[in-house]
């Protein structure tokens, strides 16, 4: 899923800094340490947006889980992705899968994100980007980009409850009932997202496969 984006910086003042950020991340091979296809996905426990602690081992107990790492409601690409999953969830659930979004937003913002766009989804709160950092999916944004966000009125410190100088790389995983990665989409360009249809096809392919 690649949202349309203008090529004229006068129409999109964020295009040039976004392109520069993506180029830096690619040069640093950001996300290259993240789990890959057929890797075991580390077990974790996070609070959901309603305050209940949730472990991966419990999520996968009833079948494959799609984990979507998002930046937050403030990111239009994340809002579009979550909306796409809202539409795709019935197809995913028909194949025995469950969609779980992950956001580091605090102070009720993650729950608002869920309720406004995909009320049927479950939203986990990755406080201080702890899980993203453990997986190699977090990076420092640098002072120049941080200042641009501040000047634009975007208070990442308030949104995340920290310094506001770290963001996650958006990613999508399918984790099977044994905790193994069966689909992985990791791209440092936050404007490029996994196609829900391809993700659901990966879940469908798991049906009838014997467990190790």
3D architecture notes:
- There is one protein chain.
- The chain has helices at 15-27, 56-59, 76-94, 109-117, 130-135, 143-151, 156-160, 196-206, and strands spanning 45-47, 53-55, 65-69, 98-103, 122-125, 138-140, 166-168, 171-175, 181-186.
- The protein is an alpha/beta fold.
- The chain has a five-stranded mixed sheet, covered by helices on one side. Strands 1-2 form a two-stranded antiparallel ribbon.
- Strand 3, helix 3 and strand 4 (98-103) form a beta-alpha-beta unit.
- Mean pLDDT is 92; it is low at 1-11.
Estimated share of beta-strand residues: 15-25%
Low-confidence stretches: 1-11
Classify the helix fraction into a percent range.
25-40%
Major sheet strand order: 5-4-3-8-9
N-to-C terminal Cα separation, in Å?
A: 32 Å
Q: Which class do the helix and strand fractions yield?
A: alpha/beta
Radius of gyration, in angstroms, nearest whole number: 17 Å
| Count of runs of 4 or more consecutive helical residues | 8
Mean pLDDT: 92
Oligomeric status of the shown chains?
Answer: single chain
The tally of strands reads 9
Shape: globular
């Amino acid at each position: 899923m690649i949202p349309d984006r203008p090529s004229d910086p006068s129409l999109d003042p964020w295009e040039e800094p976004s392109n520069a950020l993506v180029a830096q991340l690619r040069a640093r091979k950001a996300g290259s340490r993240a789990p890959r296809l057929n890797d075991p996905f580390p077990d974790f426990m996070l609070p959901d947006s309603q305050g209940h602690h949730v472990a991966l081992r419990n999520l996968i107990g009833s079948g494959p889980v799609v984990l979507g790492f998002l930046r937050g409601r403030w990111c239009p690409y994340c809002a579009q992705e979550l909306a796409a999953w809202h539409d795709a969830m019935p197809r995913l659930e028909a194949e025995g899968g469950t969609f779980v979004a992950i956001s580091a937003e605090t102070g009720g913002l993650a729950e608002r994100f869920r309720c406004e766009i995909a009320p049927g989804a479950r939203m986990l709160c990755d406080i201080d980007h702890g899980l993203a950092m453990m997986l190699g999916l977090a990076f420092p944004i640098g002072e120049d980009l941080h200042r641009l966000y501040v000047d634009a009125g975007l208070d990442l410190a308030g949104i995340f409850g920290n310094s506001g100088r770290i963001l996650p790389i958006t990613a999508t995983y399918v984790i099977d009932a044994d905790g193994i990665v069966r689909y992985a989409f990791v791209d440092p360009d936050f404007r490029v997202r996994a196609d829900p249809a391809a993700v659901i096809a990966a879940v469908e392919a798991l049906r009838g496969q014997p467990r190790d």
